[in-house]
Amino acid sequence: MPDIVDVQVDELLREAEQRLRGASAPARPMPPVPVKDSAPAAEPPATVSKKQLAVRKPQAQPPREDTKKDTTGPNWFNLPKTDLTPDFKRDWQLLRMRGLLDPKHQKKALRSAPPEYSRVGQVIGGPADFYSARLTRKERKQTIFEEVMGAHDSDKLKGKYAGIQCNKTSGKKAFYQRLVSQRRKRQN
């Protein structure tokens, strides 16, 4: 099978481009396809011009912009992308499980993945705030986790756990043994 020379490929591509533009391609005879001999041809055929030998360079494409933006845009005050540090992940997990810390207050569940765009800040009390509404220095904490654990009453959970265990064991073997031991105490 005869091989196609680079010059012929260029010519075919030019004709295809002209057809796509709507102009008809000039009817030029194609240069003959050389048959492969034992020695490759070092020079192109004499009928090929220097213009046809010019190397085709691809058109420069404009650089692609990243599909992911770094900010939300001016309508959302250019909120930056969330920086997923270990502290932020821990705080997000704590916010998601805040219903477990205080079962009396029902809160809407947060999604498992942190928001794509967010910023963590610190609330600073102004001098116009009422004095009793401000936190003292001892009450101020560095992270959300420290603040929640500082305000959290662990005795409340222990009492709740003990109550659940007491209800679970009532009517079972342990309940019956305790009842029998109380009867023996009364008889003595």
From TrEMBL:
GO molecular function: RNA binding
Segments forming domain Fcf2 pre-rRNA processing C-terminal: 68-157
Spans annotated as Disordered: 16-82
Signal keyword on record: no
Domain of life: Eukaryota
A single BP term in Gene Ontology: RNA processing
The keyword Nucleus appears for this protein: yes
GO cellular component term of the entry, any: nucleolus
Compartments where found: Nucleus, Nucleolus
Keyword list, A-Z: Nucleus
Pfam families assigned: Fcf2
Name of the molecule in the record: rRNA-processing protein fcf2
Organism expressing this protein natively: Tolypocladium ophioglossoides (strain CBS 100239) (Snaketongue truffleclub)
